[in-house]
Amino acid sequence: MMLNYSYPLYRPPSEADSLIFQVTLGCSFNECSFCDMYRSKEYSERPWDEVKAEIDVMSKTLPETRRIFLADGDALNLQTDYMKNIVKYLYEKFPNLERISCYAMPMNVLKKTPEELKTLRDAGLNMFYLGIESGSDVILKKVTKGATAATIIRACKKAKDAGYILSCMIILGLGGKTHSKEHIKGTAGVINASAPHYVGALTLYLENGIKEEFKTKFGEPFIPVSDAESLDELEDLIRQIDVRNEVIFRANHGSNAYTVKGTFPQDKQMMLDKISWMKQHPEVVRPTGLRGF
Question: What CATH topology corresponds to 13-288?
Answer without folding.
Answer: pyruvate-formate lyase- activating enzyme (3.80.30)
